Amino acid sequence: LIPRFLQELHCGKSVRLDPILAQVTRINEESTDWNTLIQKVQSKMTKTFVLRMPDGRELIRKINMPKITFKVETRSGNKKVTLINNLAVFGIEPKRLCHQIQVEAATSATTSNEAVNCEGPQVTVLGNQVTYLGELLMKDYGIDKKYIEGLDLGIKKKRK
Questions:
Q1: CA distances to 53, 65, 93, 105 from 131, in Å
Q2: Beta bridge partners of 122
Q3: For a tag on the chain, would you pick the N or C end, based on fewer CB atoms within 10 A?
Q4: Could you give the residue ranges of the DSSP H alpha helices within the chain?
Q5: Domain boundaries in the chain?
Q6: How much is the pLDDT for 118?
Q7: Does 68-153 carry CATH code 3.90.1140.10?
Q8: Confidence grade of residue 24 (pLDDT, cut at 50, 70, 90)
């Protein structure tokens, strides 16, 4: 893509820009080095991510990749609940996840469709289950730790 806009290629590190590429990148000089040119072009591109579902569907989204977020809230009677947001973006079925949590962790797990700052349904789990849920998402669903926010809210194990 870039080489067809270039008028003259040098063997060295610098390239000569044509008027169109100079206007797009807003580089005022006649020539610039490759690194600067590539950084300027990449900064103009829209951030996009592609999700490939197990059934072969592909979802293309032109925004920053949202993260799965954990929140621990205290309800009446000092009961703690763990809220999980943005599971649908990663192609995780909330009802299937709720059933898996109910069976493995022996705790209540429900979904709510109307949640603030959440794409898709929100999952509510009884108790502070952040550590268990983080391991479940990373091991069973293969989600990288960098896409999960709030793992530090889990219960710390006491040292002996």
A1: 26, 23, 20, 11
A2: 112
A3: C
A4: 19-25, 34-44, 94-105, 130-139
A5: 3-44, 68-153
A6: 82
A7: no
A8: confident
